[in-house]
Amino acid sequence: MPFIANTDADRDAMLAAVGLERIEDLFRDVPEQHRYATLDLPEPLSELEVLREVSALADENDHLGELASFLGAGAYRHFVPSVVDFLAGRSEFYSAYTPYQPEVSQGTLQAIFEYQSMVAALTGMDAANASHYDGATATAEAVIMALNSATGNRPGGKGPRKRVVLSPALNPQYREVVHTYTQGMGLDIVGGDLIDHDFHTLLELVDEDTACVVVQNPDFLGQLHSAAEMQDLADAVHAAGALLAVSVDPISLGMFTPPGEYGVDIVMGEGQSLGNALNFGGPYLGFFAMRTADVRKSAGRIAGETVDVDGQTGYVLTLSTREQHIRRGRATSNICTNQALMALRACIYLAAMGKHGLRSVAEQCYHKAQYAATRISMIPGYQIVGEKPFFKEFVVRCPAPVHVIKDYLLMEWGIVAGYDLVDDYPELGECLLLCVTEMNTRQEIDDLVEALASVAEMVEDMELELVRELEDVR
Length: 474
Prior knowledge:
This protein has two domains: 128 residues, Aspartate Aminotransferase, domain 1 (Alpha-Beta Complex), CATH 3.90.1150; 270 residues, Type I PLP-dependent aspartate aminotransferase-like (Major domain) (Aspartate Aminotransferase, domain 2, 3-Layer(aba) Sandwich).
């Protein structure tokens, strides 16, 4: 939006209109001793000078156009076709307000409807909502939806279920947001501190008080659980009268079985990788899909397709669950909006890529990650952790502290070398979570391997020198 400063004549006219002589008179209700007589501000700059200063500051940053990045852990660098920026940047979409009035919001409502349809098809679920803030809040909303669901009461009139079982391999930030979202609700949230990530260990925590089990596939450590494993998990959870919620990487669904085909009740996740840049951490996009039976228990809003009195197709907000629209007692969440612009970008991305394009992206991620893991496993001192298949992320045990390796690779090689797991998983000390997407070239992967090998050589030389020193002491 352009900014045009007020002239002195403009200010005088506005003051005259409200019957005042000075700008200070606008603040006469504030005691004088509490007003700032002067502000310690730098000298004013022209627009040109400001642009030069800001550009100079920006030039001090590194960006992923200059670096090879293998960092994932919930936010991923994928190619965004130029059509996404072009269409999403149109003023009709970019500046559109929340579509409370369907008669003037048909374009936005149709875009939301198409987005929902694509998410439902991608996940294999019956319905999807108009999105949440991000993958973390979508996970928290899945927990609340499970608590509100028809299966939320224990048999025999024993009252509502209060236990929530979270997989330790669920994104640690998602687990934290679930705790924050539900504080004060008297819930028993368990499982996140388990060291054993096996589903069977997780099921030992499920009892008649359990409302839901939340897992991730592929999980935070990159491991991919088969459709048969997930079906067995769903059957066990349902046998206990609970719901199963699964957080997924949407790109992986271009290649692997959608959750709707193995009995999942709620599917959610981070949609940033669908046509949205990394954006320094946000804004992002939480997608959310469910079974038909649970639609009225879902949070957020759902756009629907209908016909008007003339039989013409039209779009409306079919379901809106927040308190300002319906009775407070019937509201299923305090969620107050959706990420319409980010969802629009995801919609354009999915439409542009199509199912074959999405599969191609998924296959490139998968094969490049396998190539990287194979090469790294051949370097002395490095070990791939885990026996399960993986999609585009995998864990590597390193011969030196991860923070040292990351600093060295960034400074000497221009490589962003993944995510340090030690804070989230102390049992995985000196382990690095690496991510490979279609954006990583073979040369970048080979450079990563060479850089890691050079670290191993330095560690070996240091150890050899230490042995010599010990021998001299003896």
